[in-house]
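Bench notes, afternoon.
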Amino acid sequence: FAVLIETYMGKGSLEIDFLSLLNGNFAVAAVLISFGGLIGKISPMQITVLTLVELLCYCANKVFFLKQYESSPLIADCGGTIIIHVFGAYFGLCACKVLGPPKDDKLNASSYTSDIFSLVGTVFLWLFWPSFVAGALPSGAGQTTALINTVLALLASSVATFALTPIIENGKLTTVPIQNATLAGGVSIGATANLVGPFGALVIGGCAGLLSTVGFTKSPFFGDCDTCGISNLHGMPGIFGGLVSIAVPFMYHGTGLVAANQAIGLAGTLAVACVTGATTGFILQALGTPEESFTDDTFWAECDDKGIAKQ
């Protein structure tokens, strides 16, 4: 759906090529980010509506406001810091706020097994994040720079997370920051991955890791309704990365960035995401929210611990 919609909006035709498929994957990433705030609290029908509405809003923002298909786009954002992460996070968070916190969140918990298994996902995300950031760039020096800087930013956010977590958590490493904040460098570096130097990438990644770790340990924003902490991994680091892209033209020469345009793109995307996300939240609310949250039993025939299907 995203491939067709974005291609038609951007090109005025339905010519599908490799970049169309790549952009479709980027669009789905925005929806997955939003879903992280709503997971466990909405029905399959609501998920379907969320996906269709958000993809339309995401593609319209990218094509018509940020002008990514024109010869002179409004902003530079090779890794989707603003286009994907900021939009997806605040679209989902505003929808969450409209729906409100769940009536009962006692089932919103993890186990030792699920925590260990989830870290496998973190490793895969960490390994593939550089290609996500640099994949849409033309091959050459710029793409190589983006790949290297993304790895450096991820390394810095990982070190910052492992260093800060025990300080906040009474000398212990806790799973949630390690699962998530280690990836924050990849979120923040996206807008400038092909423009800054190695030291800049380390600073951006380290600051993003610190910001995300504080978010996951203290939950300063949206903690009552944000299931997976998308504010802490995608929202705050995304805004930080957008602010960095505004500052970069003053610190690096020849980047081609226009600070005013980056600021307009960041603020405008944030506003569009909040308005369309809240509107979508009202639509989801009208469809009806499941009475029980964080249980598969509402829509699936579950099995008991012995593997025998419930009748």
